[in-house]
Amino acid sequence: MTTILEATPPGGGRWTPLRQAATHVLLDNWTGAATVPSRALYPHQWSWDSAFIAIGLRHVAPRRAQRELETLLGAQWDDGRIPHIVFNPAVPLDAYFPSPDFWRSSTAGRAAGAPRAVQTSGIVQPPVHALAAWQVHLADPAESRRRGFLPRIYPRLAAWHRYLATRRDLGGGGLAAVVHPWEPGLDNSPYWDAALARVEPAPPHSFRRADLTHGSPSDRPTDLDYARYVRLAGVYRDHDYDDARTPHAFAVEDPCFNALLIASEHALAAIARTVGADPADARAHLRRAEETTAALVDRLWDPAAGVFGARDLLTGEPIGGYGVSGLVPLIVPGLPAQVTAALLRTAHGPRFRLGQVHLVPSYDLTAEEFDGNRYWRGPSWFNTAWLIHRGLVRHGRAGSARVLRTQILTAADSTGFAEYLEPYTGQGRGIRRFAWTAALALDLLHSGERDVDRDVEERDADERDAEERDTGGDGVSTARGEAGATR
């Protein structure tokens, strides 16, 4: 095992080749309107991938980063959902499964307002989009204003958050629920084993996995897991993607999904002020962020374990275990101090060994279910490491943040932008030239701790300014004046 404790923060020209290589990955994966995660395994546009990709693209091509998000939002459904896949009609149907003819979005999703002109999936992914949009705007505010970027996408992002806060509050406790393991992005995490066990698998002859053409079976979810994924998606489709009417066999409140919703509500408040929306809109976003934070702590925090867990809404019981999803709430502003302290202890403890293994394992290193090679059952992923890096910066853990940043950049370089890593050896697993790995490496190369810290401070200052305006300050005219410049 390689222990990484004395890492030196990257700097200077040492990383110039990595910048160039990462940029080329994004250029090569660009389709003309969006970026595919991988030309081979993932040949369409994925929802949270595009958000992370835009965060990296903003440093080298701000207009393309805006286009990335605009293309995704162009496939939004009338009910507000942003589908997890937007299909490229030029790609053969057998290149990926489930393909458009399985989802049948334009017919099965008609009542929910699925677009007619583009085919999509019917499920969603974590709501990173408003956070990404705000970051993209800050990268080149002049170009953003010239193109009217924020005013055009703000209503769509607000509708997306309304969908999650209303139709997806299946537990009635103020958190968004996920109805398929693909939705929280941690597809085959041990978190979901018990909930998935009650799902009747789809017959083996009813589908053909395309992923095994490009990946080793030892890296990917099992056939049994996949058969259950297919069953859940098919039942949702056959009930017209109606959240209230579908007899969900899988309905879970996930901490990562809701932490990203909270972070994006804070970003949406900043966007609302920038576009000159009614001041009540910004206040509403901040209020929802605070209410969702309180619900997150109340419903998903496990003080005995020192980590956030998930909740199975069919049984009403918490889901135990230590997944990286439970650490991601470090990005949330306003967590109680004792919660933050416990999360940091857990991250550095034996279950994740932050700074001692490569990046952040996706599941408990000490658990029987841990598998360092198989997708989300243990490997370290670059996007969750990037999120935890932001959380470390937010909470003043500069040393740990520098070590993690160096690990991310070193691993991206040494593995050829692998999809994920075996956490003990650092060996790249999955596919190479993976787009969000390249994008997030670019972001860390261009930003670093001080810029992330400054972004956190600026957003906190924006929120304080909003509170002053709400109590009679004179900042409203300033916000409206900036919005006037965008039109």
TrEMBL record:
Pfam families: MGH1-like_GH. Residues 42-437 form the Mannosylglycerate hydrolase MGH1-like glycoside hydrolase domain. Belongs to the glycosyl hydrolase 63 family. Keywords: Glycosidase, Hydrolase. One of its GO terms (molecular function) is hydrolase activity, acting on glycosyl bonds. This is Trehalase family glycosidase. InterPro entries: 6-hairpin_glycosidase_sf (IPR008928), 6hp_glycosidase-like_sf (IPR012341), Glycoside_hydrolase_63 (IPR004888), MGH1-like_GH (IPR054491). The lineage of its organism: Bacteria, Bacillati, Actinomycetota, Actinomycetes, Streptosporangiales. Residues 452-487 are annotated as: Disordered. It comes from the Bacteria. The keyword Acyltransferase does not apply.
